[in-house]
Amino acid sequence: MNLSHRTDTFTDSVIRRMTRVCLKYNAINLSQGFPDFDPPKEICDCLAEVSHEDYHQYAITWGGTEL
After folding, report:
1. What percent of the chain has pLDDT over 90?
2. DSSP for 2-42, written as a single string
3. With 0-12 CB in 10 A as exposed, 13-18 as middle and 19+ as buried, what is 24?
4. Phi and psi for 6 in degrees, rounded to 5?
5. CA nearest 38: which of 29, 30, 47?
6. Which residues lie closer than 8 Å to 29 by C-beta, 6 or more apart?
7. pLDDT at 60 over 70
8. For residue 33, which of 18, 55, 52 has the smallest C-alpha distance?
9. What pLDDT sits at residue 64?
10. What pLDDT score does 42 carry?
11. What is the mean pLDDT of the chain?
12. Tell me: the pLDDT tens digits for 24-48?
């Protein structure tokens, strides 16, 4: 059952595609961050603080103008 024809032309994201390729060839995946260490406490504290603010979405493709 096809729920919507609007999604027929959607493709996987590059990140998902590269993850599958890396898994297939046992390669190092540079398309995603997979840190093997905890982030600094200051970063986690800041994240907890800002998680209650404004939007929770990636920036537009060309980034945030204020940055």
Report:
1. 15
2. -S-GGGTT----HHHHHHHHHHHHT----SS---SSPPPHH
3. exposed
4. -65, -25
5. 47
6. 18, 19, 22, 23
7. no
8. 18
9. 65
10. 94
11. 80
12. 999 988 777 777 788 899 989 998 8
Contacts of 21 (CB under 8 A, 6+ apart): 27
Residue type, 43: I
- Tokens linked to 19: 């993850």
Does 34 or 18 have the greater pLDDT score?
18
Supply the pTM of this predicted model. 0.41
Query: Token pair of 13, please?
Result: 């994201």
Torsion of the alpha carbons at 61, 62, 66 and 67, rounded to the nearest 10: 100
Would you mind telling me the total number of residues written for the chain in this entry? 67
* Residue 50 token pair: 């800002």
